[in-house]
Design brief:
The protein is built from 9 helices and 16 strands. By secondary structure, it is of the alpha+beta class.
């Protein structure tokens, strides 16, 4: 079954949250690619693929281009992409006005351990450098969904030591536990694919299918994509921030010893989406005290801090008073 670590959040910052890359064939497709990039942005920020949020924004009188700061064609791995950069403040302000929930920069990590018994070679785990047809599809699917939805969908990266351990594994060792222990993640997905011959595959593990039925490779691809979309939806449902609520916090940040560090601090705070406004109350002995307006509740702010490598939560004096340390 899918393992969810509900009392522990690893998470990572999805740095280019407001930058969307869309494949593009030629310059005549720029308009349609811009539309697609905006749709993907709304899916990312809202955590939902419902088109209703897109139409809410369009029907409010805004156009997709209103939120763009720049766009250009980039060549990535010999493929052309339209890189579209969106204005974070304009996007979040529109979401707030329309009461659309948001998800911040801190995004979950879902780790996939997928074993394959192809029948033509020893059993193996799909890794970042796997090259078989099913492996390539799964890697491309995870990359595509990671980019579209804005989270981390990861496979193991096997080094020589890992390959040696897996090759020499016995009944007294667990390759699964060995690989799991090497990675940090919020959720873990276990899937097993078995080739039955005659182009039919058996699926076991977390994907809910008929275990006694053989599936074509095309069936496997569809079941896999649908399953990954479903666990993304479940994961995001617990991270959404209610943009209709807000609270005022008194937050002290210690460890600021120069103007350069203050500038870095301002930049990092600006990336915390739940913060809608902040005001400096005082500065003393390397500690800055802020009055911060936050969307949602204090738990949304605390989660943003806990998943941010630049801040350490020191103490919570009361419901509206927090002390942080700035980590260089």
């Amino acid at each position: 079954t899918l393992i969810i670590f509900s009392n522990y959040s690893f998470g990572k910052e999805f740095e280019e949250l407001f930058t969307i890359y869309v494949p593009i064939e030629n310059t005549s497709k720029i308009e349609s690619s811009i539309n697609q990039s905006f749709n993907n942005l709304v899916f990312r920020i809202s955590g939902s693929k419902s088109p209703s949020n897109i139409w809410k924004i369009i029907n409010s009188g805004s156009t997709r281009k209103d939120f763009i700061t720049s766009y250009s064609i980039k060549n990535i791995n010999e493929n052309s992409y339209l890189e579209v950069n969106f204005n974070q403040n304009l996007v979040i302000d529109k979401f707030k006005k329309l009461s659309i929930p948001i998800i911040g920069y801190s995004r979950p990590v879902i780790f996939f351990l997928i074993s394959v018994e192809s029948g033509s070679e020893p059993p193996y785990y799909i890794s970042k450098d796997s090259i078989n047809e099913i492996d390539i599809y799964i890697k491309e699917s995870l990359n595509r969904l990671s980019n579209e939805r804005g989270l981390f969908l990861e496979l193991p990266l096997l080094d020589l030591e890992d390959k040696r351990f897996l090759t020499n594994a016995s009944i007294l060792t667990s390759p699964q536990q060995y690989l799991i222990s090497k990675y940090d993640f919020d959720e873990y997905v276990d899937i097993k694919l078995i080739n039955l011959g005659l182009k039919k595959w058996l699926i076991k593990g977390d994907i809910n299918t008929d275990f006694n039925k053989g599936y074509s490779l095309e069936d496997i691809k569809k079941y896999f994509d649908d399953y990954v979309e479903s666990i993304i939806n479940v994961t995001f449902s617990n991270l959404k921030i209610d943009t209709t609520n807000s609270i005022l916090l008194d937050v002290s940040v210690e460890g600021i010893n120069s103007y350069e560090e203050y500038e870095i601090l301002k930049d990092k705070l600006s990336k915390i989406i739940v913060i809608t406004n902040l005001e400096i109350l005082n500065f003393k002995n390397g500690t800055i005290r802020f009055k911060i307006n936050v969307m949602g509740d204090i738990n949304n702010f605390k989660k943003s801090i806990e998943n941010n490598t630049f801040f350490e939560l020191l103490s919570e004096k009361n419901n509206n008073n927090l002390s942080l340390r700035f980590v260089k």
